[in-house]
Here is the input.
Amino acid sequence: MPGASRETKRVRVVNAKNWTAGGDGQDGAFAFSVVTEDDERHVIAPSPQAAAVLVGLVQTGTVLLWDPVERTLIAANLVGE
Here is the structure.
């Protein structure tokens, strides 16, 4: 994939690892475990808004790639096969 590092791998599993409550009226903090095709596990902690987008991408069956060097999640099949 252009622009991605050589360590970029296809994501096999995304799990919501935990949610930590914030103070009253605050969003709290989310963490997700990203498991790649080589069984490497990575933890990411997106904002609540980004977490909602991530859940949406996972639920639609979008092919995701994880670049651990750049800590970038790539949605690989938005158009085409």
